[in-house]
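Workshop exercise sheet. Pairs work together: one partner reads the sequence aloud, the other fills in the structure field after running the prediction. Swap roles for the next sheet.
Pair: D.N. / O.F.
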Amino acid sequence: MVMSRTHHISQQFDKELEDIRSKVMTMGGLVEDSLSQVLEALSRTDMELAERIASSDYKVNEMEVDIDGECTAILLRRQPAAGDLRLVLAVSKIITDLERVGDEVKKVARIVARIATSGGQDSYYVGILAMGHHVRRMLRAALDAFARMDSHAALEVAQEDPEVDKELEAIMRQLITYMMEDPRSIRGVLDAVLAARAFERIGDHADNICESAIFLVEGKDVRHVALEDLRQQLARGRE
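Structure field:
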């Protein structure tokens, strides 16, 4: 009788853990879809689509609150240890990063709405769109690494973050050139700068999700570990 009850509790706990994993992926899909849509809105300067994206941000916020509440309840009720505890902690960090990605998407959506009204230059956004698609792929790959509990795939995604920084530097140099050549472009260029920085931050959040995935699998906090050191640590783990 006692063993049956213990087995039932264990099954219920496993279900709760699987539920928060599933909800993270649902939230991630929602954020990724919003990011794809804002890139489409930016490419077409579609004010109507941009406004819809900006007004739907509450869905991501609601999911963060819901999942965070479940994580807190699991910690209080189950007092998980080892891998189960790492899963709950990783989920708690990942949903924060996803919510912040949602915030950055909302910022870009508002910029699109502004440039649709004021008539911004398409040339400002060619490199920015390319960077936006890059960080969207990073976000998808980071979530996939978490879902598959693949620390090595997470490391591969994290290695792309310096490339995003280089893309931002190149974009900033180009935008500064536009301002120097024509002071009347300053307002439009500033919007482009804000959009570029928003996409760069999304890349940072994708990198954070990778760090959470590595923590979940390896049990190591790698937030302040250099990429080369991390690569060597994971390689040793394979031996």
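Discussion prompt: The radius of gyration is 21 Å. What would you look at next?
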